[in-house]
Amino acid sequence: MLDSSLMQLMWLASPALPIGGFSYSECLESAVDTERAATESDASAWLVDHLHLSLARSDLPAVAQAITAWRTDDHERIAALNAWVLQTRESSELRQQTEQMGRSLLEWLRNHTTATPAQISVLAAQDPTYPIAFALAASATQAPMRDCLLTYAFGWAENMVQAAIKSVPLGQSAGQRILSALTAEIPAAIDHALSLDDDTRQAFSPMLAILSSQHEGQYSRLFRS
Questions:
Q1: What is the pTM of this model?
Q2: Under CATH, to which class is 30-213 assigned?
């Protein structure tokens, strides 16, 4: 991989990317509140399950398929994948997250040279979701598909670990142990994601939907989801 491609992927994975990912816990805060993930070991197990049961089955394959679509200018396919992502968000909070992060990444792309004006126009013509916007940013790096998915998964893992540190709460060393456990599982999650097609890609995580609905009325919270 070219140095420029690697640095662009590192940029996309950085928690400093101004898209607001730090403000969401993706229901982890609700899991902590209901004592499903109230310790380091439970939070680690929860996030590993989230990686394999949710991310690897839905967002990661959607990102992979969208990268191919962006690179082949298949705009109809991009619109279909974006609509699918929106349909999989089962609560207002989860939908708000993917829409807000998608719009923020779109604005970031407008100020960089990683995507063409025509591509940005295609993305802006819909309600851009984060996975599809990320796929555009990653596709423009010309990095290999697997490296793009590693970037997406690691960026997600870092945000979730920071959410665990704040909401359990945990110390930095505990957070690093959880991140280590997640990074050990990411390659297998990506292997699974790359094996899926339209008929096998799925989004079925009913407990996440329940916890997200509960989070909307949670008495005390730090995160937007």
A1: 0.95
A2: mainly alpha
